[in-house]
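ok trying this again, last paste got cut off
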Amino acid sequence: MENIYKELFQRNLISDRQHRFLEAIRTNQIVSIYSELRLVLYLGIMLFTGGVGYFAWQNMGEIGHLTCMILLAAAIGVGFYFIGKFAKPYSNTQVTIPLVYFDYLLILVSLLIISLFAYVQVYFDLVELLINWTSFISAGILLFMAYRYDNSALLAMGIAALAAAVGISITPVDWTKGDWQITPDLYLTSMLLGALLLVVEHITYQKEIKKHFRFTYQNFGLLLFYVGGLASIFDGNNEWLYAVLLLVVAGILTYYTWEKKEFLFFLYSNLAAYIAFTYLFFRMIEFIGVDMIFLIYYFPLTCIGYVVFLISKKSHFAHD
């Protein structure tokens, strides 16, 4: 990379100003803090919404519940005014908004809507009535905002809320008693939800509906599927069945992600397949009754071998 900019400059493909600018970046004289600023802004939004709730709780006797709800509604209205002012019409393709802080405004308004929704539930004593629907409604709000205004962060929050909604419906929670009744179906639910997200990702990608949301769907889908499958192996019934299923699916996705040069998802699939294979291998050795002393070399050798493999094949993912 050192000589590329110089060579481009010597061929008159870039100007002297561009050459000096690129050299300053290469030598770290100019450093981007874009990611750090985004993190600070997201943290600021979370702190602001939390601070609003804490302020309302501390001063409830003076300002009253209805006043708090009206203020929240007013803040949401002001937020939607600016959103409507700068937003573009819905499109299946990626939409770029010129306003730098538009995404943060979207997240803030979405969180305020959910805060107002939760406030109304508590004030009007609707918690028990809507306990199984609260997360579904929150997920619906977040997913609508994500698609309408093209925001991947809201999509991730919506999927997380959907996962919570499915978990609550399968494992009912009695908030008044503090009881959490875990059922063996939770791991299967995680796998099914992960598979559903992957199917949605595939269909929307083929139909060219928000194709740039693909990474978010894949990331959540694979994590939910693999974590659910691995948990079923070590803390559930029919361990052999889940291990074989996980090994087959992870093996297929390993090949698919290798062909697509998707390193992160390739790594997910490798780790899931490795754990499933190791479980089956050890169980088979135990069943046969072979002396397991030689297995002390299994983990060092396989881990070293895998690291060597990744290093030797790093050029395969180099341009992705």
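PB: full thing came through this time. The chain has 14 helices and two strands.
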